[in-house]
């Protein structure tokens, strides 16, 4: 496991706490358990829901942001859902517009609204997760409400290990 800087560790832990708090309403952020930190990716388990997820913040850039962009790959064992991708983009997306994901030279059209985007179906979801395991980086390109194109990017070093840790964490926690 690659060591993260203290700043990176705090940022990933804070982001995970926000995700848990935002997605679960009034649940305390302490309900989640860290399953490991891998480069810029973290893996967490929320036994209350139950769910597990790998998560990473987008690379910083100088562009305007409405949201802190992240990507999460979640597993909900009670629902039978594994490896579900969710992108929080840095800006609200114009409707209708094209949202394009590029992973290692492969491209997919995503669906979304507000500041969120997802794969269009289970086949795309599985193909994207598979591509993430071997690509060095991924980007999402979209158009914001003002008509401006923007890009959010994520390094993928550590993504495969974090996704595996999340899957194993939920398998053990059942």
Task: Describe, in plain words, how this protein is organized in 3D.
There is one protein chain. This protein has 174 residues and is α+β, with helices and mostly antiparallel strands. The protein has a single domain, classed as Invasion associated locus B (IalB) protein (Immunoglobulin-like, Sandwich), CATH 2.60.40.1880. It contains three helices and ten strands, in the order αββββββββαββα.
What would a concise description of this structure say?
With 174 residues, this protein is of the alpha+beta class. The chain has one domain (6-172): Immunoglobulin-like. The protein is built from 3 helices and 10 strands.
- What is the top-level CATH class? Mainly Beta
CATH architecture: Sandwich
Poorly predicted runs of 5 or more residues: 16-28
What Rg do the Cα atoms give? 15 Å
Outline the fold blueprint.
Elements: H1 6-24, E1 33-38, E2 41-46, E3 51-57, E4 70-76, E5 81-88, E6 99-103, E7 106-113, E8 116-119, H2 122-132, E9 137-143, E10 149-155, H3 159-172
Antiparallel strand pairs: 1-2, 2-3, 3-4, 4-5, 5-8, 6-7, 6-9, 7-8, 9-10
Question: Can you tag this structure with a few keywords?
Answer:
Immunoglobulin-like, 37% strand, alpha+beta, 10-stranded antiparallel sheet, 174 residues, globular
């Amino acid at each position: 496991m690659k060591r993260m800087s203290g700043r990176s560790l705090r940022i990933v832990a804070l982001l995970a706490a926000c995700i848990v708090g935002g997605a679960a309403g009034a649940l305390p952020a302490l309900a989640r358990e860290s399953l490991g930190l891998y480069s810029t990716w973290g893996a967490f388990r929320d036994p209350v829901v139950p769910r597990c997820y790998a998560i990473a913040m987008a690379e910083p850039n100088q562009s305007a942001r409405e949201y802190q962009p992240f990507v999460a790959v979640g597993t909900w064992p009670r629902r039978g859902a594994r490896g579900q991708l969710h992108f929080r983009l840095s800006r609200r997306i114009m409707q209708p517009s094209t949202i394009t994901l590029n992973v290692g030279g492969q491209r997919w059209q995503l669906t979304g609204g507000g500041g969120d985007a997802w794969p269009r179906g289970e086949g795309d979801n599985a193909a994207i997760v598979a591509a993430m395991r071997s690509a060095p980086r991924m980007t999402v390109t979209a158009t914001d409400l003002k008509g401006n194109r923007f890009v959010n990017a994520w390094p993928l070093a550590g993504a495969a290990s974090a996704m595996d840790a999340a899957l194993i964490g939920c398998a053990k926690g059942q």
